[in-house]
Amino acid sequence: MDNDNDENTIRVITPNKKSGEIYGIVEKMSGASRLIVMCEDGVTRNCRIPGKMKKRMWIREGDLVIVKPWEFQDEKGDIIYRYTKTQAAYLSRNHMLPEIIDVFNEKQ
């Protein structure tokens, strides 16, 4: 059952556009599980890290994340997922990131 394509395949989670999830880059840590995130729609949001992610996944400045904006306050949101550097580079190489947040683009 060897498949040569499995070695080179990287599977990454993408935002669910139907539920309003978008890409974002963490700009600043605000403390108390809060972050300032620049989102792909050009809005800077004050996002929080949900309790189930706090201890499991550490988030730093410059990380690529998936944000779900709040329905009742558009300037706030929740962090859904954090990409590793390898996953972020993969998304950038395959042009899956919007230009506004593609800071992983390697100039060649």
Task: Describe what this molecule looks like in 3D.
This protein is of the alpha+beta class and 108 residues long. The protein has one domain (15-101): OB fold (Dihydrolipoamide Acetyltransferase, E2P). 16% of the residues lie in helices and 31% in strands. It contains 3 helices and 5 strands; from the N terminus they run αβββαββα. The chain has helices at residues 5-8, 51-54, 85-93; strands spanning 22-31, 34-39, 44-48, 64-69, 76-82. A 5-stranded mixed barrel has the order 1-2-3-5-4. The longest helix is centred in the last third of the chain and has 9 residues, at 85-93. The radius of gyration is 15 Å and the shape is globular. The N and C termini lie far apart (38 Å). The model has no long low-confidence stretch (mean pLDDT 87).
